Amino acid sequence: MTLRNSIKQHTINTLLQSRLSATYMQHALCINKKFFPPNELTYDHIEMDFFNDEANVEIIQSVAYILNYFEFLSAAVRYGDLDETLLRSAVGGMLIRFYERMMLFIKFQRGDDGRVALHPRQLEHYTWLFKRWKKKKGYEDWLWDQAKQDRRE
């Protein structure tokens, strides 16, 4: 019980620190302004031409920063250092939408042709978490199952 509470507290602290980080917020605002405008309801993949344009260096740096942060969160979930249920309820939609929007760039980084990834370690934990959360059944059902599992432990 103490370990579970400690992991949940660590998860909360990690999320709060990102919100208090000026660097994180600068990159998040840059990305939100460019890729997630409030008047759009659906989001397509960003084409690779965007990432090959030198005029977009600043936004590409922000994308790289956020991808690395999400990789860190994903690795921490994978190895049990962060509480998956809490993290998914707090930022799950954001992690999934960002992955979907940047999918072509992520596949390029991984050398992924849909069958094999030439660089499977590149963003491996974020890719793992994305696939895990996308294949899960409905979000509410997933939370309920996680809560039942937590009570059993």
Task: Throw out a few tags for this protein.
single chain; 153 residues; mainly alpha; 8 helices; globular
Overview of this protein structure:
This protein has 153 residues and is mainly alpha-helical. The chain has one domain. The chain is 73% helix and 0% strand. The chain has helices at residues 2-20, 22-35, 48-52, 57-78, 84-101, 103-110, 124-135, 139-152. The longest helix is centred in the middle third of the chain and has 22 residues, at 57-78. The protein is globular, with a radius of gyration of 16 Å.
Summarize this structure briefly.
This protein is mostly helical. Helices cover 73% and strands 0% of the residues.
Whole-number total of structural domains? 1
Structural class: mainly alpha
Query: Helical segment tally?
Result: 8
Unreliably modeled segments? none
Rg is 16 Å
Number of strands: 0
- Assembly of the depicted chains: single chain
Mean pLDDT: 88
Q: What share of residues are in beta strands? A: under 5%
Order of helices and strands: HHHHHHHH
How would you characterize the largest beta sheet?
Answer: none
Helix content: over 70%
C-alpha geometry: globular
Through-space gap between termini: 8 Å
Task: Describe the SSE topology.
Blueprint: H1 2-20, H2 22-35, H3 48-52, H4 57-78, H5 84-101, H6 103-110, H7 124-135, H8 139-152
Helix pairs in contact: 2-4, 4-5, 4-7, 5-7
